[in-house]
Amino acid sequence: MRTRIGIIGAGPAGLFLAHLLHRAGIESVIVETRSRAAVESTIRAGMLEDWVVRLLRAMGLADRLDREAHFHDGVSLQVGAVRQHLDLAGLTGGKQVTIYAQHEVLKDLIAARLADGGEIRFEAHVTALDGIEGDSPAIHFTEAGDARRLDCDFIVAADGFHGPGRDAIPDAARREYQKVYPFGWLGILCHAPRSWPELVYARHEDGFALLTTRSDAIQRLYIQCEPADPIEAWPDARIWDALHRRLATPGWSLTEGAIFQKGIIPLRSFVCETMRHGRLFLAGDAAHIVPPTGAKGLNLAVADVRVLARAFERFYAYDDAAGFDTYAATALGRIWKGERFSWWMTTMLHRDPSETDFEHRIHAADLAYVMGSTAAQAALAENYLGLPFTD
Ligand code: PHB
């Protein structure tokens, strides 16, 4: 098999890239280890930056999003029992918070890609990448037990944090930066009506809590927990008890519902420099991870492939490879700002058992400052809804 761009991974980075390339007349093939059903049902976060929504609309891929997503003018921050609305739309010239679950985005992108005649090979397990330092790299994979080879001009590893892509860059050519937080998030989905009209990010002495939504009848909630907690340590009654305590405000209470999905994720910040080696490029979680508190994961992945798609267009249209040389630096400029914002939101809103009393007070002051300052709120709003592009 042969294609121009061999993409590993049918997540946000891989699928957005395939669509952008298709619109530039550049063919690609996606190789994905999971089944289509697994990709379309994996529960992730759900906040799309304003420009991502506009990009989906410009690509003609936002019909269902426009019908089913939830658009809010802001978010609420809460400290103790004090809840305050931040007017993010007013602070950003009208940008909205769009809540549309990541797997819903993926369903739309997969359906449209297949309708365009695009090739996505599900349940295809990568065994090796070769030739990335030469002119004709190849992805080796197995499909239903058969060994296959996809020859390409370039390989894009959009294969997530645990995928094989990043490891194909020699150790000496990459440097990794990491922070592992001493807490995790327990996330639930439940059948309940909405309790509050927008997201609530709450700092509480017991730990962080986040109220978000999926539909009028399905709500998504998260609470800070021990990262190593087994899910059995959190029977439903304990989850509701923690949520009620952390989110309570005078005269308001959270509406409970039947929990039908729950899981615990660790929180990590991670960046791999570089994002290119020869004819291999990294995009999305393969190169960087953020804790979900800033809602940046998918958005940073799409920002990477926006830059990368342009580099490929420039190469195929004008035989100009300059975009490949600047890809990592351009992408990393935005990534580090996303890392900073995600780290800042996380430290400001969580209870860190390992922090000093001084740091604890500073993080509380950080939040008090945001709640009392329009200037600080404008900075939060700009980062939350998507920094402007400088390229
Ligand atoms: C979500 O809706 O799942 C969500 C929203 C915002 C976050 C994290 C998760 O910061």
TrEMBL record:
Source organism phylogeny: Bacteria, Pseudomonadati, Pseudomonadota, Alphaproteobacteria, Acetobacterales
Domain named FAD-binding: residues: 3-341
GO MF, one example: oxidoreductase activity, acting on paired donors, with incorporation or reduction of molecular oxygen, NAD(P)H as one donor, and incorporation of one atom of oxygen
Protein name per the record: 4-hydroxybenzoate 3-monooxygenase
Keyword Flavoprotein assigned: yes
Organism whose genome encodes this protein: Plastoroseomonas arctica
Alphabetical UniProt keywords: FAD, Flavoprotein
Signal peptide: none
